[in-house]
Amino acid sequence: MQYSYGRVELGHLHGSSFADLPFPKKVRERNRGQRAVRSVGKIPDGSVSPVALVIADTHIPRRAKRLPKALLPHIERADLILHAGDFMDPALLGELAAYAPVRAVKGNVDGPDVNLPEMLEFEFGGVRIALIHDSGPKKDRRTRMRRRFPEARVVVFGHSHIPLLEDEDGLLLLNPGSPTDRRRQLEHTFALLRVEEREARAEIKVLP
Question: Domain boundaries in the chain?
Fold first, then answer.
């Protein structure tokens, strides 16, 4: 059986981290029974000013047992949730999909049975978004991402755990860092991506 999060499909879930995640009891109980959210609606179109929560490299349960509780208010307010890979436990995507549509790509530590694409493009609020786990070396990254995603206004990626926000020459590059595994960074981070009047802007947020 496969589980669908909006347009993204995911293979069999192994185990569950539901009990470890800081989500409301009613959501945990519903997901224990259903194993995943089958239908989560569509991405908001350009008629509204939607907000996407952007995370990557959560590495649950290897690096953390759960998402930080401080992230929950942002999850609850999100119109869309983006995960740029290396989630490890696919059950996390099922939990997130209880709140908003989820778009996710496969990271290098996600198992071979995870049925997610390595790259993804979609419209969000009338803006073209691309999602990939590893954007490659820092050198020539912008040129490389522009060549790979010529129609994208925003490219979201992860892998390095290093937060990055660069908006130049019509291409916004966004790495949210990690909310659970900061490695050599000073803080745990995530990002918010907003679309207003079909124009994108982003901000990187530090978790307490």
Answer: 3-206
Specify the residue for token string 């259903």: 34
pTM score: 0.81
SS3 per-residue string spanning the chain: CCEEECCEEECCCCCCCHHHCCCCHHHHHHHHHHCCCCCCCCCCCCCCCCEEEEECCCCECCCCCCCCHHHHHHHHHCCEEEECCCCECCHHHHHHCCCCCEEECCCCCCCCCCCCCCEEEEEECCEEEEEECCCCCCCCHHHHHHHHCCCCCEEECCCCCCCEEEEECCEEEEECCCCCCCCCCCCCEEEEEEEECCEEEEEEEECC
CATH class of 3-206: alpha beta
| pLDDT one-digit tens code per residue, 11-26 | 323 333 333 344 443 4
The Cα–Cα gap between 138 and 124 comes to 26
Nearest to 204 by CA among 174, 170, 180, 184: 174
96-122: b or e for each residue (b if 16 or more CB lie within 10 Å)? Answer: bbbbbbbbbbbbeebeeebebeeebbb
Name the more confident of 8 and 204. 204
Pairing of β 171-175 and β 154-156: parallel
